Amino acid sequence: MRVKFDRDTCVGMFQCVAEWDAFEKDLNDGKADLRGSEEEAEDVFVVDVPDDEEFDAKFAARVCPVDAIEVYDDDGEQVV
Fold first, then answer.
1. pTM to 2 decimal places
2. CB burial class (10 A; 0-12, 13-18, 19+) of residue 20?
3. Which among 1, 19, 53, 67 has the fewest CB atoms less than 10 Å away?
């Protein structure tokens, strides 16, 4: 499973931070950061999700009020 995070879309509600500890607050920018991620494109970050954190990653994507987080299965299909 893989997560794609569009940091430019993020509005800093930090609901993702409460749901998955891979996200952390960046109070300087007023946006979340995705730890351990790689920048795929400008302000778009991706990270592989450990098997035991898949539920938390999906929930973080579901609670994002601006849909800045997308979750993809191992076949590349978007699941959230």
1. 0.96
2. buried
3. 67
Buried b vs exposed e over 52-73: b needs ≥16 C-beta within 10 Å? eebebbbbbbeebeeebbbbbe
Q: 75: which DSSP letter?
A: T
Q: What is the pLDDT of residues 49-63, one digit of tens each?
A: 999 999 999 999 999
CATH number of the domain that 45 lies in? 3.30.70.20
34-49 residue pLDDT tens: 999 999 999 999 999 9
* Domain annotation covers residue 67: yes
Domain interval for residue 33: 2-72
Number of domains in the chain: 1
Q: Which amino acid is at 68?
A: A
